[in-house]
Amino acid sequence: MPMYRINFSEFFTSAFSVDCIIFGFSDSKIKALLIKRAMEPFNHFWAVPGDLVYPKEDLPEAAERILYELTGLKGIQMHQSQSFGNPERHPQGRVITVAYFALIKIDDFKIEASSWAEDIKWMAIDEIPALAFDHNHIIKSTYEMLKIKLANEPVVFDMLPKRFTLNQLQQLYEYASATEMDKANFRKKIKNIPLKAHNEKQQNVKHRPAKLFSFDSKKYISLSKDLNYRFKL
Amino acid sequence: MPMYRINFSEFFTSAFSVDCIIFGFSDSKIKALLIKRAMEPFNHFWAVPGDLVYPKEDLPEAAERILYELTGLKGIQMHQSQSFGNPERHPQGRVITVAYFALIKIDDFKIEASSWAEDIKWMAIDEIPALAFDHNHIIKSTYEMLKIKLANEPVVFDMLPKRFTLNQLQQLYEYASATEMDKANFRKKIKNIPLKAHNEKQQNVKHRPAKLFSFDSKKYISLSKDLNYRFKL
DNA sequence: GCAAAAGTGTTTGGATTACACCCATGC
DNA sequence: GCATGGGTGTAATCCAAACACTTTTGC
Predict the structure, then answer these.
(1) What is the pLDDT of residues B17-43, one digit of tens each?
(2) Handedness of CA B95, B99, B104, B106 (dihedral sign)
(3) Which CATH number applies to A11-152: 3.90.79.10, 3.40.630.10, 1.10.260.40, 3.30.360.10?
(4) Is A83 on the interface with B (CB under 8 A)?
(5) How far is CA B62 from CA A219, B20, B94, B116, in A?
(6) Helical H runs in chain B?
(7) How far is it, in rounded angstroms, from Cα B67 to Cα B64?
(8) CA A226 – C1' D18 distance (Å)?
């Protein structure tokens, strides 16, 4: 006689949410997009944007929805980070949260506070104040995951303008890896990464303008078919 | 006037579970411990051991409990994998699951089916049949995470006997990285990893017995304090 | 002695590092 | 011309791959 182990309605009393850490790059720094909450709990606290998951919604869908509601951006690749389920983490009940992160080009959209936030701001990852809930912890461990991704998958280019200089790429690399590197050596290091050089230069700089590059995703895909090739930054 | 966004009891209608993928190593293969379910849903299907999380229980606690109930092992480090929340994944309601994994020494315990399983078995990672729920998917993505951990943190030693031969270490490495490697070169590759050599040899082999080694975790900890040192397998 | 695996040394080519130097632009 | 960063070449060094060879055990 088969038995159902789950027959206690007491188990179906929890909620879950998705929190989205949105990373961007400007002023040589990696930043996260934070909102100032305009609701309880943690009213007026800075926080990672997040929302409860709808009953019929899958997790990646929820993450995309939150990103869209916040930035108007669609079609951005989302990456799952970790889940956090401390029973005390939410004052209103048992809510576990799944953290997702997105990498976006800061210039691609205009930030504006939505109805459920009274302010919104990019904050450099090393200048983040005390946040609502366990959000400091969530950001910290998600940033660790970001760094691993950046080193092993071609996602840096999601944070850079479509056309970027090699120096921008180097600055992003140096910030994420917390190192400094010789310019010539950096260029040798990335020579396995397929970049398209354009006949176009940086504008409005008071020194020799740098050449602009873009990531050659077509070439990357064909390279990836070779099992000996592995992206490494 | 502060408003609570969460005031709909309809949100607190989901449950969550923790699934534990327990990895071990024997016969030169990485294996996972699976149970044959003795309950609905998916009665008589092979599955990853898992359970609902108790209302007052944190996620890592739940993972440790499940490991203990299944193997009797305590004090094993658990690692969080990914979460899975497809609304259709559980036939009895909305259940999202957080996958955890543990690496254990297969010889350290005797497996025996518990009350909620009719059978239990180690299965090589590339010989796993169709499982209950979305468990094939869960195992696959957790195995990918395992491979990354193995390469970057000294967790291989959790899967090997306390004293092991260099060839065992190499076989585990080769299985996980799906490569073959020259013996001499492998030994050069691992010379940064702190190992203690013992005056003890393999027994009952019909060839020259190999020396036994153990991981020198004391030395590893002091090495880790040097920011230039990074474990790499 | 033979089979089988343990264990070590040498050579070579490619990648990483340190460092030096030249180039283009604005003011 | 000079300040500022863009861009490149060279030599020394380290590291990984290929391969050959010696050693120790059981039978």
Answers:
(1) 999 999 999 999 999 999 999 888 999
(2) positive
(3) 3.90.79.10
(4) yes
(5) 45, 10, 19, 17
(6) 59-71, 135-152, 166-177, 183-189, 217-224
(7) 5
(8) 22
Contact: A40, B4; criterion CB under 8 Å: yes
Chain centroid to Cα B33, Å, comes to 9
A162: amino acid identity, one letter: K
Which residues from chain A sit within 8 angstroms of residue B3, using beta carbons?
Answer: 39-40
With an 8 Å Cβ cutoff, are B11 and A148 in contact?
Answer: no
Reference A11, options B17, B149, B64; nearest CA is B17
Residue-wise burial string across A33-71, b where 16 or more C-beta atoms lie within 10 A, e elsewhere? bbbbbbbeeeeebbbbbbbbbeeebbbbbbbbbbbeebb
Select the CATH number that applies to the domain covering B160-224 from these four: 1.10.10.10, 3.40.190.10, 2.20.25.10, 3.90.550.10.
1.10.10.10
Whether A5 contacts chain B with CB within 8 A: yes
pLDDT single digits (tens) B47-106: 999 998 988 899 999 999 999 988 888 999 999 999 999 999 988 888 899 999 999 999
pTM for this prediction = 0.92
Could you write out the three-class secondary structure of A196-217? EEEEEECCCCCCCCCEEEEECH
| Encoded tokens for B11 | 């949100």
Contacts of A101 (CB under 8 A, 6+ apart): A20, A21, A22, A23, A78, A79, A81, A142, A145, A146
Give residues 53 to 82 of A whose Cβ lies within 8 Å of B. 53, 55-59, 80, 82
| Pairs across A and B, CB distance < 8 A | 107
Contacting residues of A for B11, CB less than 8 Å apart: 15, 52, 55
